[in-house]
Amino acid sequence: MIIDQISALKGKKKAFAWLIDPDKCDHTRLSQRIQTANQLGVDYLFVGGSLVFNHVDSLIKLIKPLCVMPVILFPGSPLQVSSRADAILLLSLISGRNPEFLIGQHVIAAPFIRESGIEILPTGYMLVNGGTQTSVAYMSNSQPIPNNKPDLALATAMAGEMLGLRLIFMDAGSGAPDPVPVPMIRSVSTGVKVPLIVGGGISSANQARTAYEAGADIIVVGNAAERDPGLIEDFIHERDRFNT
User: Could you tell me the CA-to-CA distances from 97 to 140, 147, 154, 188, 228 in Å, in that order?
Assistant: First the structure.
């Protein structure tokens, strides 16, 4: 199971996930980029976004036969669920106080998710201030955790772990000027036993290395890889440095 593979990473290995936002990806070059991701050894392909106009199911139908890595839904709403995916990050927005994104939207999606048969990855989702208001903060009507409050991030992550969530995902938001700060990554990584996913604002190999060194088990890159697909090789190189 995918959750077992990810759980085995904690403190032992690093992984890299490429996030495809259906509204931002270049569909004309997608096939070629998926093949490149296969060759480079991308570990996971996340699909989704805060505001999706294109049909997620149609995109996954297109890319799934091309992928050797698991395709995992990163949903922004119950509309972004597809039985064609391998798994879904079932995100509970534990950094916010909007009940719709703690449990409300999950209630709407639960019957379809159960019927789809895809693997469920219960995930505590934490928004971190990345220097600007992001789409997900706006759409969820919630405040991100201040980026100078690692203690607050740790307490939030600990609560999510105690509630039984299997993963923690700290996200500065798509295209954030500032990635999740090192002290916050280090604090959360050392304070919980579940794997830590970190994304948002990671746009260089140096930032990827810094996040891995601080304790991120998986880093997620979307916008930067869409602008410059060649960066994926750099991110994979940083992952491999920790896995040799």
Answer: 10, 18, 17, 20, 36
Q: What is the pLDDT of residues 213-242, one digit of tens each?
A: 999 999 999 878 878 878 999 999 999 999
Closest CA to 236 of 197, 195, 208: 208
Burial of 123 (C-beta count, 10 Å sphere; 0-12/13-18/19+): buried
Decide: 17 and 212 in contact? Cβ < 8 Å.
no
What CATH number is attached to the domain comprising 156?
3.20.20.390
Domain count, the chain: 1
Residue 168 is part of which domain span? 2-243
208 alpha-carbon distance from chain centroid: 14
* pLDDT per residue as tens digits for the range 196-210: 999 999 999 999 999
Question: Please, which residues have CB within 8 angstroms of residue 154's CB and are 6 or more apart in sequence?
Answer: 187, 188, 191, 192
